[in-house]
Amino acid sequence: MSELLYMFGEMDPRVRPLTFSIRRWAQSSGLTNPSPGRWITNFSLSCLVMYFLQQLRQPILPSISTMVKAAATADIRITEDGINCTFARDMERLSFPSRNTSSLSELLLQFFEFYSQFDFHNRAISLNEGRALAKPDHSAMYIVNPLEQLLNVSKNVSLEECERLRIEVRNAAWILESEVENSSLSEHERQEQSWGLLNLFKHPEKSVIRPNMFFKPRMVEVSDLFEKSQNGATTTTPLVNYKNSTVRQQVQSIKAAARTELKQLRESSTTTATATSSSTSTSKTKRSR
Question: pTM above 0.90?
Answer without folding.
Answer: no
